[in-house]
């Protein structure tokens, strides 16, 4: 406890770090306040309340702003969708690949295109949001004027959230976009844990304590797997420049066990609503379609979870393949005079890295699948749906990843100022650590 207090004092004794932490807290407070500002012309007392299904997942990520008909009702999600589209285009389009390789100028162009695409996606999603989630009886003004004004307000709200995220990254601590998502998820935790405690009552306090203990070990397991890396040794040749000898040291390429992060779960969750949606069109004509729609609308059914797990495993391999390129790693090593001991540079190095990446991706994919279906397993044990969501899935992975990223940056500030780090041994490795050759 004494070491913890000393570390906190060290953190706030660094002026730049203290200012960044306070800036981050200020931006997050602004974001949360905006989540409670209802769109003009909406009577909040006539709103249907919390959504279910994919809309319920979106509402969890936005901290209730979606169901509140807030000016931040779409939050940062259109920007994330635009970022995913642009990232996929850098794999499919040669022109986008060229921009990505142009360095800082290329990244600025891609970021600008992402912002433009965000506006287009927000306008399209705002129409669907206003027509499907806000009933006519909740609208107190002319509907046409309400639709036009709300589309503009929702688009401006998303752009403002995007600006807040960028300001947190520049002036605060941690990744701004991820921080906005995490604060939305955490905002639901107090209500979820209090609801679970009340549902157990005084007679179920022992079971509630066991739930907290299980949640603790699940979080620790997610942290360990998120931190896990397979290190490939790289030897650099010695170079004599003038009277000095450079190189000759051994370094490592850290390949993460879970290189895809949370993206496979997001992709799989998007597709998991297709079977129930398609089957619902023939539900009145076919008993099979009716039962299929019922099965895939229940996230605790074994059919739903088996298909969900298979999709996550497939998407993990797909996203790892497009985000980590063995050929690029091999080419970078060759340019810098590095080689893997016992492996020839070039094609053999690429094949060697690809084989290792394939071997570690499988256990990482299986882990992601287990984490994704863990909330369904928790629900089968009688845990409330709101509290079960924190046992795994997108929410837990995002929270763990963002916390690790933030702690990594704080530790870097402490070590640069010659203070003791947050850990006695080892280092905190966040998601921001890219696979690269030093």
From TrEMBL:
The transmembrane segments are: 21-42, 71-93, 113-132, 144-165, 172-193, 205-225, 259-282, 302-324, 360-383, 389-407
Query: Membrane topology type, per the record?
Result: Multi-pass membrane protein
**Main location per the UniProt record:** membrane
UniProt-listed InterPro entries: SecY, SecY/SEC61-alpha, SecY_CS, SecY_dom_sf
Keyword ATP-binding found: no
Report the locations given in the UniProt record: Cell membrane; Membrane
Alphabetized, the UniProt keywords read:
Cell membrane, Membrane, Protein transport, Translocation, Transmembrane, Transmembrane helix, Transport
Function of the molecule: The central subunit of the protein translocation channel SecYEG. Consists of two halves formed by TMs 1-5 and 6-10. These two domains form a lateral gate at the front which open onto the bilayer between TMs 2 and 7, and are clamped together by SecE at the back. The channel is closed by both a pore ring composed of hydrophobic SecY resides and a short helix (helix 2A) on the extracellular side of the membrane which forms a plug. The plug probably moves laterally to allow the channel to open. The ring and the pore may move independently.
Instruction: Indicate the family of this protein.
Output: Belongs to the SecY/SEC61-alpha family.
Q: What HAMAP family does the entry give?
A: SecY (MF_01465)
Quaternary organization:
Component of the Sec protein translocase complex. Heterotrimer consisting of SecY, SecE and SecG subunits. The heterotrimers can form oligomers, although 1 heterotrimer is thought to be able to translocate proteins. Interacts with the ribosome. Interacts with SecDF, and other proteins may be involved. Interacts with SecA.
- Kindly provide the name given to this protein in its UniProt entry: Protein translocase subunit SecY
Species of origin reads Rhodocytophaga aerolata
Q: What is the lineage of its organism?
A: Bacteria, Pseudomonadati, Bacteroidota, Cytophagia, Cytophagales
